[in-house]
Amino acid sequence: MQRRSRGINTGLILLLSQIFHVGINNIPPVTLATLALNIWLFLSPLKPLHSSCLSVEKCYQYKDWQRLLLSPLHHADDWHLYFNMASMLWKGINLERRLGSRWFAYVITTFSLLTGVVYLLLQFALAEFMDEPEFRRNCAVGFSGVLFALKVLNNHYCPGGFVNVMGFPVPNRFACWAELVAIHLLSPGTSFAGHLAGILVGLMYTQGPLKKIMEACAGIFPSNTGYSGQQYYFNSSGKYFISFNKFHTD
């Protein structure tokens, strides 16, 4: 796991600039809290990256399960933080207004844990089927697995339209898969399994039983308690299609 560089954190400055440009009052509370927590842990990490990243070896073999909580909230460098949190900003605004703040907080928490679990299962399966122990040691941090899951939700609720992926228009319903391949081709160091885990968790919610299980666990838990405030939406065209979903590994 690479150490984050010292010096001016340009990515952090750009992120703060973007947040203030949108306006604190225009950002729903759970989205704002998620941004603040990730920024805080970037500036004051609970543990070094090598002690917070997620791998089969560290979690399963050494029983260090707290990494499931730590890994989504830590980032390798300021640009990793910027791309992920800039994506979270517009996804959070759209989804939190649609789902309501309490349900969105429930979704974020569940997705953060499940994405890590699915990532571990994928890495374990690859290690077993390919007889390659390196997959057990691959260690990842970052929020982009959760962002891929949220992207599936966003595309589910807004199925029409197209997204520009590497210069090609791709229908929203296929955007996650196109971006998964594009990111892996352009940035081989990113975690294919981490992003795939996010897509699978998102599909478990939109197409599978996850939403019903969450509703059953929550009991009487209104999912339509929204955030009242000024509507603000990002233009989804431009660089976000590739840059806002980075998931670093060794």
From TrEMBL:
Enzyme class: hydrolase
A single Gene Ontology CC term: mitochondrial membrane
Pfam families: Rhomboid
EC number(s) per entry: 3.4.21.105
UniProt entry tagged with the keyword Oxidoreductase: no
Catalytic activity, reaction form: Cleaves type-1 transmembrane domains using a catalytic dyad composed of serine and histidine that are contributed by different transmembrane domains
Subcellular location as annotated: Endoplasmic reticulum membrane; Mitochondrion membrane
GO biological process, one term: cell differentiation
Any one GO MF annotation of this record: serine-type endopeptidase activity
Major subcellular location class: endoplasmic reticulum
Record key words, sorted: Apoptosis, Differentiation, Endoplasmic reticulum, Hydrolase, Membrane, Mitochondrion, Protease, Serine protease, Spermatogenesis, Transmembrane, Transmembrane helix
Topology within the bilayer: Multi-pass membrane protein
Transmembrane segments: 103-127, 177-205
Residues in Peptidase S54 rhomboid domain copies: 64-206
Gene3D superfamilies attached to this UniProt entry: Rhomboid-like
InterPro entries: Peptidase_S54_rhomboid_dom, Rhomboid-like_sf
Segment forming the signal sequence: none
Top-level taxon of origin: Eukaryota
Family membership noted in the UniProt record: Belongs to the peptidase S54 family.
Protein name: Rhomboid-related protein 4
